[in-house]
Amino acid sequence: MLLALEASSAQIQRIVQSKAFRTSEVHRNLLTYLGEKSLSGESDNIKEYTVGLDVFGKPDSYDPRQESTVRMHVARLRQKLADYYRTEGVDDPIFVDLPKGGFRVTFEPRAVAAVPDPETPVAAPKDRTGRYWLEVVLVAALLVTVGTALYFANQLWSLQTPETVSVEMTPELRQLWEPLINSARPLIVAVSTAKPETSGAGPASGLFRLGEFLGKLKASVQVLESNQIEAPEVAMGNVVYLGRMDGDNRQMQAMVEGRPFVLDAQGIHNTQPLSGEPALFADRLPADPSDTEESFALISRVPGLYGNGEVLYLSGNRVGAITGGVQAFTDPKFAATLVSEMKDATGKLPQYYQVVLKVRAMDGMPIETHFVLHRALVREAKAK
Predict the structure, then answer these.
(1) Cα 194 to chain center, whole Å?
(2) Which of 264, 310, 342, 349 has the fewest Cβ atoms within 10 angstroms?
(3) Kindly report the CA angle at 322 between 317 and 323, in degrees rounded to 5?
(4) For the segment 322-370, what is each residue's pLDDT rounded down to a tens digit?
(5) What is the pTM of this model?
């Protein structure tokens, strides 16, 4: 029993010292507190009120019914634990979980995988043909693009497992992504070199979701830094631009200039506000970094360079906004909402448009994403 307690306590320490928890002191403290209470048999007596006082330093007047700080951080802790075990903790001997409905941390031993015999050939996974290699190539490109080698190497493992979530290509998702994915033109994912305002992996978290989505739908996808993409490539292909707009690529920047919605350091400017609309959708950061933030994502679908091809911008100032934009364009339920909101009187989706989304996030991870408004764009006539 003593050995089991020591092993479980050591596992908590291993998690809080990991890269997944390095930038989040509040979640390190929360996991340590709940872990110690659970190992000592006191977890059944933990209440939201006591967690607020003991971990977050709330005053005695703290009322959990009026303030959701504890609930939000506990939910985020569950997400961070899941992220940890998909990456750094994939081979850990003890699985730590925080089941919903309470504050008790559970500890489950895990079977240690046998070391394969180097003389024994390993069968290739089923149903992982060319697209399996596409996922590998995408992740390899991410290694070069973003430079966080250990993080992405761990993510590569998760893409290779049979449990990888399949893409449900609904009619609404198809409307949003055609002809980007069904065109004979090459598809390029351009990753912004401009660092988002939130520290961490930048657009990488959204890029992995986007890479998994596109890897199941498009036979060939090229991933480049935004400062590496040249005008001929833009003119010859379709482009998905991920992240804040930077000044390193004038061609990519010019295609969104003069549009109704413009992203800058403050948020999203509404250059042509209609009645009742604000002129600025300002990002709002919390006074306490451990609380949630609100920022805005700007999604722009515009004609490509010289009117050829298609360009989709998934942009924002904050990591949470960028990731929220990607999730909105890859999640079947949110795609249905977007299509419903953007249809015109005839029931058609405009070919070109801009969409503003409001994203509530914690530690760069979206918690809630809401549609705000959109504008249909008129395609300019090609210059002869």
Answers:
(1) 17
(2) 264
(3) 145
(4) 999 999 999 999 999 999 999 998 889 999 999 999 999 887 788 899 9
(5) 0.62
